[in-house]
Amino acid sequence: MSAIPPSRTASVAEPRRVSAALRQKSRIAEQENRPDSKASSVRKGSTTTTETRTERRTVDERLIKRTRSPLKPTEANGSNGRKSRDAPERPRRAEEVRQEEASSQAQTTTWSPQATLLPPSSSAPLATRISIPPLSQHAPASVQPPSLAGLDLQRQETALIEDLLFVLMGIEGQYVRFVESYNPLDEKSRYIGPAFKIASGLDPSLRDLASGMLKTATQYAALEVFVETMGREECGTVTHALCAAMRKLLKDYLILIAQLEHQSLTNDGFTLHQMNLHLKPTGHMMTQIYSLAQEVLKENSMLGDLLEDDADQSDEFENILESLREGRNTAIPGKKTCKGGAVLRLIARRLQSSAGDPTASQLLQTLLREASRPYMRMLNEWLHHGNVQDPHSEFLIKEQKSIRREGLQQDYTDEYWEKRYTIRPELVPPHLEGVKERVLLAGKYLNVVRECGGITDKNRDLSNSAEVPHTFSNPRFLENVSHAYAFANRSLMTLLLTTHGLPARLKSLKHYFFLDRSDFFSYFLELSASELRKPAKHVNAAKLQSLLEIVLRQPGSVAAEDPFKEDVKVTMSDTGLTGWLMRVVNCGGGKDEKEISGYEALTLDYAVPFPLSLIISRNTLTRYQLLFRYLLSLRHLEVLLTQSWMEHTKAPAWIYKAKRGTVDSNEIAMARKVESWKRRAWCLRARMLCFVQQLLYFCTSEVIEPNWNGFMGRLSQAEEAERGGKVEAPEEQAKLGAVNKTEKEGVAKRTVDELMQDHVDFLATCLKECMLTNSKLLRINSKVMSTCTLFANYTSSLSRYLASLASPSPDNSTAPAYDPAKLDKLFSILQQYEDHFSRHLKILLDALNYLAATETVVFLGLCARLSMANEGGAGGGPAGPAAYE
């Protein structure tokens, strides 16, 4: 193909397609007008050539008539058949000849093949607008050409070359036609291409040469249909670019056919062998393009030989819903779709497998380069502006437009950041496989920056400039991705840390949710105690919000200087902390809890503006609320036990001691028994208070504070690196698998996603080490705290019950008369509290020891602290009753 310069146009191909049948009739007429060499040499005495040709035709027609119509029996005359035939024979034959000529002319007039002009299509503006012509197998016998067996070798070759010039353009010839099984109205048959057959009587050597060229004719016809079908709008811009590249190659192919026709008309020595040699390179090219087109059709399930894959039905369902929301139609014929990045993957895979064929490799590289141009335009728009311009769903980044940032305040699953932009694995070209995460993050970062006011760098409009690579073969392709990622990360990091003050926001969260410097909160609990004692459904949340605002604006309070105090809100949960956590841990619904109090339902909420809501999302804020409710429950339980201690030290029934004198020994024994009961109650209260205080200290000082310092240290490093413009060292970049030195220089040290992950890890670690993620620890710890709460709330009842045992004399001169039955009931009640607390505390310590040995050693310190609360039970011990008198 390259040997003949493409200087001529191939515009004659379409008119020939339209007038194929007319050309066939003209060739028949030309053969009839051509003088017969043998007849002319024998019959030199003829007056004219026309008379000779007419005479021969008459004789031929008579012979045909005689063979087709057998003699009829003569019943009219009784003479023999020979005599009866001789008299009327000539007039009857002349009449039959005239009738046969008339019927032949009628048949010729009836056979009128036509091709019509189809109306234009908006979905496929470049598609062929010529209708499918009639097949030659439907033509009458009168227009059929003479048999090849009656032609000599030279005339056979001439006729075959003339036919091949048409067949190579997908048009039937006189002797080379479609097989009978080919149906041009069947889509699958057209995609595969028509098979051709050569009429019988052809010389074997010519047949072998022609058979090889017929494969090219089949491939050309199939490629024309492929380019027309895949050029529809819904097939995507990458497929359109591939079809455009194929059209250029097919145009060169038609130019070659026109040049071969010129050779056949002007060069008497042009042979079928020479034609075959000229077609060899082009035939190899057509084979490569044809196999690529067939593979694309198979991936689109348009050939009907691929099984439907059910693995991605959920993703396909989401795509259909998204298409319906946006009001677009992205479907193409077939069950599956292969477009965009999938087409590029297919071409790249074939290019890799054809490494040993330089010609095929060069051809596939050209197709890949041209097909990747629209994909690269989408990639550059995403990398440098954060926009997804993908109307046909062929880019590796999928945008869910239905997910908007307005829903961040109700998003408990980080759906905006995780699902707003996602990667389509099947549409990732091999060239982007190693950097697809960077591509995703670069666009996501720029999208956030753009929504917050745009990109301040005036030189970032690079998507259409010459500096940006537009093909995968450009050596700066990976460097472009790396630099775009570094710029996007730096822009968003500056926006978060400097413009919107992320560190100050996080410190504000710590003050409110981790009760750091919580003098204001203690005052708030005192003011709202009467309201919080009510059941949760009867608590007035507006009143609590007013009390919190009063406390936060109190002069001298730590919160008074907080610029974000207006963002703190009071909310009431409808589920207790333990029940909510059990549902989360067990991933299912739990049993409905009993009615909870205002203290158990109280929680705080925090309004976070965009883009800080990406770091402090609703998901992470929920973790803050869980830790706050747990710390609040410990702080409230500590207050209850402290109030119980005050009750034990001030109530007369607890501080009264009988004086020894002239009293009955039985009364003295009863008084000692009461004193022993008091000491046991004091001991139990002290153990519970020790448990709560040690657990609260562990959660705040040994879990939250160290992890908070580590998180803020990493945040400070990111802030310092951003201010100083630090980048990774070359050896560190080598570990990340950087492509070249320039790419290494463009990668930031800390990324926004690493910052987000550090924040999530910090909260997850705090929840785990505070025993809020293990269902067994949750149940045991809940039972211990419930026992402590019941005992603290029962203190006033115990005081009244203790006072009702007996009333002492005003001067305490005589001991009261205690009721033994009531005293035994007091011991029984106290024994139940001691048993429940000791048993559940021991189970908790055993579980912590096991988890300390198998999961985290942090629980060892907690075991050591809580073991102090396990000492000095009802039977005495190192911290027996005497220690608490």
From TrEMBL:
Residues 161-497 form the Gamma tubulin complex component protein N-terminal domain. The keyword Cytoplasm applies. Residues 27-37, 52-64, 83-101 have a biased composition (Basic and acidic residues). One of its GO terms (biological process) is mitotic cell cycle. GO terms for molecular function: gamma-tubulin binding; microtubule minus-end binding. It comes from the Eukaryota. InterPro entries: GCP, GCP_C, GCP_C_sf, GCP_N. Belongs to the TUBGCP family. This is Spindle pole body component.
